[in-house]
Amino acid sequence: MRNTGERLTYGSYLELDRILNSQTPQSGLSGKPAHDEMFFIIVHQTYELWFKQYLHELNSVIEMFNGNFVDEMNIGISIARLQRVVEIEKLMIEQIKVLETLAPLDFLDFRNFLGTASGFQSVQFREIEHKLGLKHEQREKYNAGDYYADYGAKDQQLVKALQGLPTLFDVIERWLERTPFLDTEGFNFLKSYRASFAKMVQEDRTMIESSPAITESEKQLRLQMIAKTESYFATVLDPESYEVLREQCVLRLSHKACLAALFITLYRDMPILQMPYRLLATLLDVDEYLTLWRYRHALMVLRMVGNKMGTGGSTGNDYLRTTVEKHKVFSDLFNLSTLLISRSQLPTLDAELVKKLGFYYSTL
Amino acid sequence: MRNTGERLTYGSYLELDRILNSQTPQSGLSGKPAHDEMFFIIVHQTYELWFKQYLHELNSVIEMFNGNFVDEMNIGISIARLQRVVEIEKLMIEQIKVLETLAPLDFLDFRNFLGTASGFQSVQFREIEHKLGLKHEQREKYNAGDYYADYGAKDQQLVKALQGLPTLFDVIERWLERTPFLDTEGFNFLKSYRASFAKMVQEDRTMIESSPAITESEKQLRLQMIAKTESYFATVLDPESYEVLREQCVLRLSHKACLAALFITLYRDMPILQMPYRLLATLLDVDEYLTLWRYRHALMVLRMVGNKMGTGGSTGNDYLRTTVEKHKVFSDLFNLSTLLISRSQLPTLDAELVKKLGFYYSTL
Amino acid sequence: MRNTGERLTYGSYLELDRILNSQTPQSGLSGKPAHDEMFFIIVHQTYELWFKQYLHELNSVIEMFNGNFVDEMNIGISIARLQRVVEIEKLMIEQIKVLETLAPLDFLDFRNFLGTASGFQSVQFREIEHKLGLKHEQREKYNAGDYYADYGAKDQQLVKALQGLPTLFDVIERWLERTPFLDTEGFNFLKSYRASFAKMVQEDRTMIESSPAITESEKQLRLQMIAKTESYFATVLDPESYEVLREQCVLRLSHKACLAALFITLYRDMPILQMPYRLLATLLDVDEYLTLWRYRHALMVLRMVGNKMGTGGSTGNDYLRTTVEKHKVFSDLFNLSTLLISRSQLPTLDAELVKKLGFYYSTL
Amino acid sequence: MRNTGERLTYGSYLELDRILNSQTPQSGLSGKPAHDEMFFIIVHQTYELWFKQYLHELNSVIEMFNGNFVDEMNIGISIARLQRVVEIEKLMIEQIKVLETLAPLDFLDFRNFLGTASGFQSVQFREIEHKLGLKHEQREKYNAGDYYADYGAKDQQLVKALQGLPTLFDVIERWLERTPFLDTEGFNFLKSYRASFAKMVQEDRTMIESSPAITESEKQLRLQMIAKTESYFATVLDPESYEVLREQCVLRLSHKACLAALFITLYRDMPILQMPYRLLATLLDVDEYLTLWRYRHALMVLRMVGNKMGTGGSTGNDYLRTTVEKHKVFSDLFNLSTLLISRSQLPTLDAELVKKLGFYYSTL
After folding, report:
1. Which of B261, C244, C263, D160 has CA atoms 20 to 30 A from the CA of D285?
2. Are B95 and B47 in contact (CB under 8 A)?
């Protein structure tokens, strides 16, 4: 409600006169009212409202992290806001169950009235993808690569203007790069981790080779697995070979940021790392639930329209199916699991570092 | 989008210029913007959009059942629409999980700006309650019984106008009353059911009394249980004593409708009763999930504001807690379970009736 | 509880002495107890219990449909049991959220103790896949194609013995093939449907070609879409070209069964088709939620172990990802959507057939 | 699997020979097999398995908090384990949806075979209630107050032995009581908070009294609300009157613990309080979702058996309904919301305290 000086009521506060009078089924306008078109409109309107909220949270977190310093108070606030984003994503997934009450045959009753209007034209969804960190080059092509063809002039402008803006991926990467602790006087994480890993691999090899209970062919298989893991660690822990993978777009985080994320994951129980660890875990959730939504959405579209082209001339299901994996943003964080070694084999932190990673309020 | 002749786009179809520009946080207008007020607004707007859809389905079902005859084709359609209502209710419940990401302390940042606006003023929610069949007299009182005090003039009119309109409860009751089969030439359901029940009770009694494995005190307990059940059946199966309970508002369905619902529930596998049974089961779901939403809502309000009075001067949690059970509409259908006897003890239908309750397409 | 004559208690009925004493964390046996191994065991045990129930329902439905005649009473019962299967699948999906509380680092604390034990060895899950109708040839290969290598001798036998048994796909296909109504004296569904489709396509073409509002390039795009649809319909509606697709494993249902499923979907509101339609819709749900579970499961495994080989020497995520789509059973029913035309353009049924598809209890 | 030296397989690891062979439908033993009894058994067995896991987490958290000192590393671990408990509770709630696929009529097919076995006899559920902190005196009575009558001798002993054991409530209360910061040289929380509250109330009063837009009757209502809040604060903030409420069992936490919880909630964004705040929020979740499960369970029982006495001679629904609210443990934490004042009106912390509540790793 605009500030009119009138007394605020539930209806005026929520501007329900506008919200509840913005559903105009096209089938009705055309004299062939289809009962389910109202449902189709409202489902999509609620999605767009949630997208607005999603962006409200996302933008506020980017802002808090954008710059050369993040106030520690903002870590807790950011986690809370990203956890809300995750809850919104879960709701978006549940909402597909509701949408699936629209039978394909009932959809056909008004589908023709939609013309070329299509979900691809959601500017807010493009913005979400961009603000999370999806790069333009990473996007699956459609419309023969003319990404903007679907949009009207004003929306084209909006979508194009996104390119220059900071993204969650960027600000998190820079925050990770600033993590202290990884190379202190008494402790070099990279060096120690390499050593621990080498020791672990050596022990595994010895155990396998000396085990009487394992058949020869399985022995070979297991040794191959170890060799693979060894090669993976060597590539990822070395800054130069890491950079090659990055240029090939296999990895995306900078080496420094990647090591910091690994450090936080491994020593997550240290008091000072407990919240940063939760932040990383929440980013994984954000990515995972959006991926799940994409997949569920693709499956629903398949069930609804089969393999026909979707509204808006897009091939629908095929495009959607491809974006499920391709549009992930934080896959480097998923990859971290490959780099973990068991806690019992972790490098021991020196006393000085342990102290830095703790709290000492009682003695201050 | 109004029919302007312009080409339909996703944005114009969904009227996103209105939908996405109808959020005006009051805290912002007052110069103390609270981040979470946007969330509070959008959560409630999506609820109102779902209420609109809920009513769209509910009204269409009432219309299909209103009158002296229901086209059999509409049974399937009605079930599908009520199942959508159930899915909407489930989503409404999930949405509370999202709402709970609003911490009480953050709510306080903008709560004062809401003045006396309150969820009690939702006209659509009142309409849902009424259209389901909640009677005005059945409502929990608030505002010292002045039910309309909270509403502005226009909304008061809307809420009052609901009183004369047909409800789901009414039309379902009349449809049940028209069920054939309960008193045919060869079969009187009420009489047969009473007889079967009496036989069952007699057998149970004999079994208990002659069982050596049961202690005396447990025997007494079990016999008491049987006596209670017997008395309950006697009351409910007799039209006159049933009517007394109805006048006391313990029961609400007419005796005829109640017996029909019982018959459908017991012989639900007969081909012709399979869909009516699903209709009754779906009505139970509609009632149950709305009840669950009410309860969950009350619990959330308690967590959010504690025992303070809610916005709008209502005592919030207490009122909400009371309506959870009190505003149920189809509790008679829940009570049916008390009246069931085991399938192995059911009256046998005569051959003529079995034929009537089957399909014979293959031989037509 | 075995029938011992003792008085039944909650604990003896549920055999809790066995159920609750069958968790033996290997890490504990090895003197390095890992807190989370108990969780890992219990999660998988509950999955296996649900698999047992899943099979209990699935087998009972196959049995009811196996043969040359299905009692109409069993349609309702089968739907109810398959809906329970769907609810179990939904729970299986929710359970992954619980499983994801196991952090990758904590999993490493006991992972080595699992040796080559692996989820691939779940005999019950193989049985579910088979009983739904997954054909042995359709399966994604692993272990270099030696499908049985992972199993012990007894389990190998169990898995191999599945091959000869009837599947849900088979019995449903035969039931569909027996559908009357598709070729009656006054109505030939295939012929009429082809005609209606041709008429619709012609109208669409005329509309597009004569529309002044559409650009030339879009016109071409739309006409191409129509041509594609036309060719798809021609192929699928013709028994011979259909058979070619079937031999290529693009389609699987027999042509007769496919047409019957299409007929039921299009005329689902006719009283006699309401339950068969619900059965088909439930089969879609069964397939869709199992697919969703597979996808979610694959994503969870990726998050847990990254790209490392899984326990049991399998490549984990890659294999799982492939089965998501490949192991679908009822994809022909999903494809039906491609074949639907709008209700307003459907062939009209003749009066005789309408009568056959209705109920006439009131006049019997 | 017991450590037999044999190679571990999926089946032997999970002891599936026991898990999957512990379902003995009583109806089958009696020669009248009821299809759904298997389902009834498996639903309850999975519940008991989850109860075991619930206790596994709960006991580990109690152990970490039991004593005079909690290692800060354990805060993060405890939160993670309690969040798993919350996820288990959510799954328990979802599982009721599965259970509701058991129609009341189908339940009757085997209900008689259950004799007096009853869910009340679940020892593990009693243990969960106790370990959370439910006091024996607080329990709703049944069986005419003979709480142990239902249990066999062995189970009676188990349930009675719970009385002496530490509970989550106890150890959390003691941990809260040890919170430093509430009374430092430069800052007395209780005193400052009282002052801030008094100032806020005074401002509110002035605003209401001087507002021309509010009607007289509303003014009175609002002033009454303020007076109520004032009186509530006075009672709760004063140690002596607080103690009276505690003796009346209206409140349960010690005054010191209550103030600490309030302090943590109000200053939750201070770096050192971010994790303690999350711990409190998780305890609220644990309590809330168990409450929701109880409610949902009661509703399901009502739907299943109506108002008949439950198996085991209990009155089922009535008892269950009463425990929903009565058996809550952390209701004091819910009440905290009533005590919050808006952030803009909070007492300012002095610089020394702010420093204590922050991290200083960069300068150490």
Report:
1. D160
2. yes
